[in-house]
Amino acid sequence: MTVFQNDGFCPICEHDVTFIAYNEWLRDHYVCQSCGSVPRERAVMAVIDAYFPMWRELRIHESSPAKGGASRRLALECADYVPSQFFPGRVRGAMVDGVLCQDLEQLTFADESIDLHVTQDVMEHVFHPDQVFKEIARTLKFGGAHIFTVPIVNKLAPSERRARIDPAGNIVHLKPEQYHGNPISDRGSLVTVDWGFDICQHIFDASGLFTQILHIDDLGRGIRAEYIEVLITFKPSGFTALD
Ligand SMILES: [Zn+2]
Fold first, then answer.
1. pLDDT digit string, tens, across residues 168-195
2. What is the CATH number of the domain that holds 206?
3. 45 lies in which domain range?
4. How far is ligand 1, taken at its centre, from the CA of residue 201, in Å?
5. Total domains present in the chain
6. Is residue 241 a part of any domain in this protein?
């Protein structure tokens, strides 16, 4: 069923295309007919292009990339694009079936070695978000940023835990289990946090870095959906106090 369709320009495949919404839940079903991308992928690419137009020359780390969308574009056009997946129980920093194993809570990258960290719908699945934000801040170069999508389902209400890990390593569910699709696991990824806009405060408390929340609503670029926000955490370079 087609809910609506429109012509526009896709920020990912950079063609004049038709976007078709197959379902009212546009976040997963408003698709570019040329590249198959969905709105949040087009939004994150548009933000990378707007704020870091030189992204092809940067060192970009993406945790848990998708097969298509912005991940595929970054992989094709950025020579120093480093994708990684978290394989529980495997050595961090090692290659597993040709894919770099990285744990966002304990990255093996050196301090100030990454220009851009990119994550797409990953931060709602981590068990120790404060540790992740710290690690991202540590490994970012000055002048770099973490550009990411995460569903901010709680909006103005405070962020809430859905699940945590107890000292023995067992998962404790604080709310009914919820899973999102995961390309490397049939079961999907457990949602650990329902984020609100106060995610920026959590990031600041963990890392000392400021985060912008960007909301794009632009049918001409096929960007319209619930939870369409793109966040940028900047690590400023050459900061000097003003007189
Ligand atoms: Zn496209």
1. 999 999 999 999 887 667 778 999 999 9
2. 3.40.50.150
3. 38-234
4. 34
5. 1
6. no
pTM: 0.95
Q: Are 162 and 172 in contact (CB under 8 A)?
A: no
Q: Would 29 be classed as within a structural domain?
A: no
| Centre of ligand 1 from the C-alpha of residue 127, in Å | 33
Name which of 12-16, 159-163, 219-223, 236-240 the model is least confident about: 236-240
Q: Is the dihedral of CA 127, 208, 153, 29 positive or negative?
A: negative
Q: Which of 204, 180, 210 lies closest to 193 in space, CA to CA?
A: 180
- Give distance in angstroms: CA of 68 to centre of ligand 1: 10
Binned at pLDDT 50, 70 and 90, residue 4 comes out as: very high
Determine the average pLDDT of the residues in 116-133. 98
Measured in Å, residue 14 CA sits from the centre of ligand 1 at 6
Ligand 1 centroid, distance to 37 Cα (angstroms):
6
User: Residue 19 Cα, ligand 1 centroid: separation in angstroms?
Assistant: 8
Q: What is the mean pLDDT of residues 45-55?
A: 98
CB 7 within 8 A of CB 27: no
Are 70 and 148 within 8 A, CB to CB? no
- Measured in Å, residue 98 CA sits from the centre of ligand 1 at 27
> Ligand 1 mean position to 124 CA, how many Å?
26
Residue 8 lies in a domain: no
The answer to whether 129 and 231 have CB atoms below 8 angstroms apart is no
User: Ligand 1: distance of its center to the CA of 35 in Å?
Assistant: 4
Kindly report, residue by residue over 83-106, the tens digit of the pLDDT. Answer: 999 998 999 999 999 999 999 999
74 CA to middle of ligand 1, Å? 14
